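Input/output pair, single chain:
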Amino acid sequence: MTHARQQALTRCRQSTLSFALLLFLSCVAGPVGAARTPQVVEVESAYVELHSGPGRGYPVFHTVERGGSVALLKRRTDWFKVRTEDGVEGWVDRRAIEQGALPGAPLEGGRDAAFDDYLERKFEAGFATGDFDGDQVFNFRAGYRFNQHFMAELALSEVSGTFSSSTLWDANLAVMPLTVWRLSPFFTLGFGRFKNDPKGVLVEDTSTEDWSANAGLGVRAYLARRFILRADYRHYVVLIDDNSNEDFDQWTIGFSVFF
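Output:
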């Protein structure tokens, strides 16, 4: 790699790292709030059964009688993980919690169960189509969510143009500052490879492959069950040769599933 190309790649990396730091600070520097105190409900029915897992197929190993109380730790579909006054942790059916809650004390975490699963998702995979600098593009992606604000993604894009076709492989970091909304924005940045294959109608029909960097933004919309509608804009900088870069804009819309 020549000195000029090394300098171009270094400048691109520095710009991307600066952008990543800015996004990171925008997520963590704001008021994230103290750890939420678990809601405590008192048992008003004769007793409440604690299961060893979130489902009726898991055995009952403990009960809390009338007058006792449990703290709600987290929810999975229609089951709550609870902790008793003695420190015993188990899973309780939501209906039992609702029946046992103190009169007039609203049960927290009353969102749709599937939306709660969406907020706790770890993996996403999806397909999208759109425009890549005037040509049609098809995009396949998969991601792993590290925590509330950060997700790593791998993406493969196939571009079909009049005179050439292109393939892009990307490894990206997605930053999600507002994760509890059904319609939530996100930012992405990453590196990858850009391969261009002329279709033989050109005089110079040699395939090329170069490094690329990208930054973008988008929005996710939770639909229902395990489906997400997603729209992206991404700007690519491709290091074509030693003295110049080439810029491309990509717009896509598609669907993802989470699990």
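The chain has three helices and 14 strands. The longest strand covers residues 208-224.
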